[in-house]
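Incident review: delayed structure delivery

Summary: a single-chain prediction request sat in the queue longer than the usual turnaround. Root cause was a stuck worker, restarted by the on-call engineer. No data loss occurred. The affected request and its eventual output are reproduced below so the record is complete for anyone auditing the incident later.

Affected input:
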Amino acid sequence: MIGTSDADVARARALAEAAGWDAAWIRTPGDVRATRRGCRFDQARAERVRTFIETFIRHTKGRWAGERFVLLLWQWSDVIAPLFGWVRPDGTRRFRRAYVSTAKKSGKSGLASAVALYLLVADDQGAPEVYLAARDRWQASICFENCARMVRQSPALARQVEIIDSRKVLVFAANGGKLEALSSDAPKTEGISISGLIFDELHVADRGLYEALQYGGAARESPLAIAITTAGIADETAIGWEQYQYAKHVLDGTIDDDSFFVAIWEVPLDADWSDPAVWPLANPSIGVTVQVNELGEGCRAAQASPSQQSVFRRYRLNQWQQQSERAIDLAVWDASAGHPIVESAYAGARAFGGLDLASTSDLNALVWLLPCPHDPEAVDLVCRAWVPEGAVAKARASRLYHQWIDAGVLRTMPGRVANYGFIRHAILEDAGRWVVDSIGVDRLFQGLELTSDLEDEGFTVAPVGMGFLSMAPLMREFERLVTAGRLHHGGHAVLRWCVDNLEVKTDPAGNRKPTRANPDVKIDVVIGLLLAIDRWARRVQTAAPAEPAFQMFFFGAGGLP
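Output delivered after worker restart:
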């Protein structure tokens, strides 16, 4: 055991054998210390929980729906037995807080729901109050509905547990207990007396709610708060990341807290994440609730897209990820170049624009998306990029700028700062080549006069937010098109450079937006492309059925917001 001497372990096991209980349950440095302090493992206490679950609880989803909930090996030996079997010298439970983390689809949420019902019905707490906590009402409702379905499918529980759907409450009159869903937007979290707490998906938890609930069981003899989660974003301000670090330190013995239970399944960060041999480390239910071929499909997609790699490693390998990572692999980008872009081929076509303007000496970009004449599922792009003539020599990318200017893929405009009149003239020229549908612009950009001028010319100019919620669907569609080889860019050199500079930043909820790690590099042309994708995707809402169905990929079945 890390951080524990062999002599300490031997003494703890000798104490266990002398007391007549199975020393095999001494597994961590915390177990060793707990044994020295008089704690012991009570097999009967653990078996009581297993008996309740396997007798009264039934699965509610998937191919096992309606069947009895028989604990998988890891659920029993690594969670239920140690969590409930260990007791203190006074006979109360040893663990008061728990952190349980696996990759998605391992069955931890179903297990947590079963445990919540045990805490309500059979935990011998007077008038138990069990709470299901989550970031918002929607997530809390999911937890509650799973418990309610378990009650409905169990004849014994259905006769005795009242379900009050309108309040998201279960009532067990036999012991005066209740189970209730709570969220950060709940009207009250103070003044409750928690006997049991299940906090779902801690990696996106609201810190205020989490902290308010931590001491809600202070008046109870044996309160138990269980956090279940998948890995999230390593944000120093997030409660999920904070608790993960605490749990790891408890697990390795750095922190002495033998009341804190930890069970984590994760692939180490230094392992080869693409090797199927390591996947079981994060997926204890592999072969049962999650299949190797399913993980393989996700892995192949992740290898093609760095940002998808982050998603795969978070959700399927349970690895905490940094906020920023590279967005697109250049090999994948280059493979999506498609046919050479010949502007005359789009004469009279309907065009959708994205305009990213700099307030001073940065790149300025205009990207047009047009229907591909060779593939109805693809989109072609025409790219314009400008830089102020007086800023070229001082730019850090001056050598590249000169090279691109000579090649005709980067244009200069007069002056030392952005010349919006020059850009307006270029847009009017393009409008003579094809039919401009609309132009997306940064909602907070500085060129208000240019916007007004374009609107006076009859253009539809649409502001687009640059935050996580607005950018997340655009990033998803951008990556989908590139990975599928259906965003034809003709190898435009300035755009390629911006793609190489592009990183994505992820919020705790998994939403992603474009960013750059180095302020000296530019991503302006990619931003113009994302703004154009916004206009292209929204146009599909009224498109004929035969046209590409981007709406489902973009916003899902719910349609556009």
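Verification: Residues 137-153 form the longest helix (17 residues).
Action items: add queue-age alerting; document worker restart procedure.
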